[in-house]
Design brief:
Layout: E1 14-20, E2 37-38, E3 41-42, H1 43-53, E4 58-63, H2 67-81, E5 87-91, H3 98-104, H4 106-109, E6 114-119, H5 127-139, E7 144-150, E8 159-162, E9 168-172, H6 179-182, E10 186-195, H7 196-203, H8 219-226, E11 231-235, H9 248-268, E12 272-273, E13 280-281, E14 286-287, E15 292-293, E16 298-300, E17 304-305, E18 310-311, E19 316-318, E20 321-322, E21 327-328, E22 332-334, E23 337-338, E24 343-344, E25 349-350, E26 355-356, E27 361-362, E28 367-369, E29 372-373, E30 378-379, E31 384-386, E32 388-390, E33 395-396, E34 401-403, E35 413-415, E36 420-421, E37 426-428, E38 431-433, E39 438-439, E40 444-445, E41 454-455
Parallel strand pairs: 1-4, 1-6, 4-5, 7-11, 12-15, 13-16, 14-17, 15-18, 16-19, 17-20, 18-21, 19-22, 20-23, 21-24, 22-25, 23-26, 24-27, 25-28, 26-29, 27-30, 28-31, 29-32, 32-35, 33-36, 34-37, 35-38, 36-39, 37-40, 39-41
Antiparallel strand pairs: 2-3, 6-10, 7-10, 8-9
Helix pairs in contact: 7-8
């Protein structure tokens, strides 16, 4: 009796392979293509999140150009990005086409019954579409299912050749198309679902083509059909999902699509976006219901905005938190926190480390950095407040400066509750202003002021008659 080797493949197991080895020459950049930023995240983030959401048994990533750089970036982001499935990194040392990349991945693919293969530069793919592609592939027992799309201008993409009955016969790369084939507007998205056992046999039959002697994964489809396998095309419900990013122009197109999706998500959740065409937000931004976002507003990073706020017009908010019922008008916030019912702007700047509110007012042409501002306090206009601790119910007059830098280090200014700082005051840190103290306008304060005192630090006025 012959010995039979038991298969190590678990029935129904799914592997997802991301092809991300390309140099991205047309990006004209020293940054590896899949690390270019989209919506505040590197491009590869979207593919990894999508792959993880499909709950595969494993995720493989084929890397080539700047292998170590890309690998380290992914490893550094995995936990933050919520990627729970194991990742296998595959090094394609020579970029000889998509077929070569898959051939290098055979040890990973052979562990799975079914594999989804897609490109690392296709950040607009959605979970619903890939889930439907996989579901149809399994329920109809196809051998290959590929995602297609119809483009008004298919230039740059491989064309889908179908039989009169609609079955996919082959994919022809644009460079090999006849004029008639080039007129076909159904294109290959570069996303496939394979039964791995057939893919393993077909990949061995690939031969190099073209002047670059590349191996095309698309040629596997003809080999699988020749063995009686069924190849089915699944048209994408939204052609934009098939957009690949190979140039800065396409990067901007992808950014526009992701931005539109993010804004639509907010509007459906109860946020008013008055002009989506001039409003830009990153994918991680959170905004609660009944907030109104005015035109020209940019929300970046991990910004979180509470309920019933008014943001903009023309505000830029980066990695900041804003509580309920706040307004930020024509202003810039970065790494700052604003508690409820506080007002910022117009034309104010809150820099990293600022924590203000509740019910704080920071007015026009004021700059605040690394400072705590307590309940009900005001920095109404034309002031610089840095490295300070301001208690509740303090009024900071126009033109006040905390002189926090002595040429060697930053020093702290402490202002106790209910103090009144007159206009055009210089507070030379380190210095403490006591509770209920008043600083006369035009003073330069270099020493601590006790509670309840009035401090004058200016020359007596002298009037002289003109001769």
């Amino acid at each position: 009796m012959k010995n039979s080797k038991k298969s190590s493949v678990r029935p129904g197991s799914l592997g997802i392979l991301l092809l991300a080895a390309g140099k991205g020459t047309r990006m004209r950049s020293e940054t590896p293509k899949v690390l270019h930023s989209l919506g505040g995240r590197p491009m590869i983030y979207y593919l990894l999140r999508l792959a993880n959401a499909l709950k595969p048994n494993g995720i493989g990533i084929v890397l080539g150009h700047e292998f170590d750089t890309v690998k380290k970036a992914i490893q550094a982001g995995v936990k933050e990005w919520g990627i729970s499935k194991p990742i296998t990194f595959i090094h394609q040392k020579e970029q000889k086409g998509s077929g070569s990349a898959v051939l290098e991945s055979m040890s990973f693919l052979k562990k799975h019954q079914t594999a989804i293969v897609t490109c690392g530069d296709s950040p607009l793919l959605t979970f619903d579409t890939l889930f439907a592609l996989l579901g149809g592939h399994r329920s109809e027992k196809h051998q290959v299912s590929l995602l297609t799309a119809r483009f008004r201008d298919p230039k740059g993409y491989g064309r889908i050749i179908r039989s009169p009955m609609g079955e996919v016969l082959k994919i022809i790369e644009e460079s090999h198309c006849t004029p008639k084939e080039a007129a076909i507007n159904e294109i290959n998205s570069g996303t496939y679902c394979f039964e791995v056992s057939l893919l393993v046999d077909a990949i061995k039959k690939l031969v190099p083509k073209g002047s670059n002697k590349e191996f095309y994964l698309t040629d596997c489809l003809e080999h699988i059909r020749s063995e009686g396998g069924r190849v089915t095309g699944f048209p994408s419900p939204s052609p934009e999902e098939a957009l690949g990013v190979n140039t800065r122009i396409q990067l901007a197109q992808a950014e526009r699509v992701l931005n539109r999706r993010a804004l639509e998500r907010l509007m459906l959740s109860g946020v008013s976006v008055l002009d989506p065409n001039t409003t830009y937000i990153d994918v991680d931004v959170e905004v609660a219901q009944d907030t109104v976002i005015h035109p020209g507003t940019i929300l970046r990073g991990k910004t979180k905005i509470g309920k019933s706020c008014v943001i903009g017009p023309y505000s830029i908010i980066v990695d900041s938190q804003i509580g309920n019922e706040c307004s930020v008008i024509n202003s810039w916030m970065e790494g700052a926190k604003l508690h409820e019912k506080s007002e910022v702007g117009p034309w104010a700047r809150l820099r990293p480390g600022t924590i203000a509110g509740p019910r704080v007012r920071i007015g026009n042409f004021s700059e605040v950095k690394n400072t705590r501002i307590g309940y009900g306090s005001k920095v109404p206009h034309l002031s610089y407040v840095g490295d300070a601790d301001i208690a509740e119910d303090v009024n900071v007059g126009a033109g006040t400066i905390t002189c926090n830098y002595d040429g060697h280090k930053k020093n702290k200014t402490v202002i106790a509750a209910k103090a009144f700082i007159g206009s055009n005051v210089n507070l030379v840190a380190p210095v403490k202003i006591g509770r209920g103290a008043t600083i006369a306008a035009g003073s330069t304060i270099t020493e601590n002021v006790p509670d309840g005192n009035i401090a004058f630090a200016r020359e007596r006025q002298v009037n002289k008659e003109r001769k």
